[in-house]
From TrEMBL:
Keywords: Methyltransferase, Transferase. Residues 51-118 form the Methyltransferase domain. One of its GO terms (molecular function) is methyltransferase activity. The lineage of its organism: Bacteria, Bacillati, Actinomycetota, Actinomycetes, Pseudonocardiales. InterPro entries: Methyltransf_25, SAM-dependent_MTases_sf. This is SAM-dependent methyltransferase. It is an enzyme of class 2 (transferase).
Length: 125
C-alpha cells in the first residue's frame, strides 16, 4: 500500500527548518534545541509514555518519540492536524509507539498515571 504524500510545501518546510530547525508543520515557537531540552528534562527514553497535549501536526511529540524511543499519545481537537501527524507517524515507522486522539486537556479519557510525562508546547489550555 502506498501512502499519500505529506501535505506540505517546499517553501514552508524550508522556512520552518531555518526558524526552528525541523519541518513538522509547527504552529508555535518551540525550537529543535528546546525540544531536545524537553526530552532531557522529562527523561524520555524507551519504555516511557509521553502525552503531548495540543499536539497540532505532531510537533514536538513525534520528534520526541523518534529522538528518544519513548511512546507518545498526541491529543488535540482539529482532525486535520491529527491526520497529518498520524500519516507522518506511519511514514517514519513510529506508528507502533504513537497514537493520536481527539481530546481536550479538560476532558482526557485516561486513567491516572497512564503517562510518565506530559508536554504542551505553545498551548494555553
Ligand atoms: C499554537 S498550536 C501549537 C501546536 C503544536 N504543539 C506546535 O508546537 O506546533 C496550539 C494547539 O493547542 C491546541 N489546544 C488549545 N487548547 C487546547 C486544549 N484545551 N486541549 C487540547 N488542545 C488544545 C490547539 O488546537 C492547537 O493545535
Amino acid at each position: 500500500m502506498s501512502l499519500p504524500p505529506m501535505p506540505r510545501g517546499a517553501v514552508t518546510d524550508d522556512i520552518e527548518r531555518r526558524v526552528i530547525g525541523a519541518d513538522f508543520g509547527a504552529d508555535g515557537y518551540t525550537t529543535l534545541a528546546q525540544a531536545d531540552d524537553l526530552a532531557a528534562h522529562l527523561d524520555l527514553r524507551p519504555g516511557r509514555r509521553l502525552l503531548d497535549l495540543g499536539s497540532g501536526r505532531g510537533w514536538p511529540g513525534l520528534y520526541l518519540a523518534a529522538r528518544t524511543g519513548c511512546a507518545v499519545v498526541l491529543a488535540d481537537l482539529p482532525g486535520d492536524g491529527l491526520g497529518i501527524a498520524a500519516l507522518r507517524a506511519v511514514r517514519e515507522g513510529l506508528d507502533t509507539r504513537c497514537a493520536v486522539i481527539a481530546a481536550t486537556g479538560q476532558h482526557l479519557p485516561f486513567a491516572a498515571e497512564t503517562f510518565d510525562a506530559v508536554g504542551h508546547a505553545d498551548v494555553m489550555c
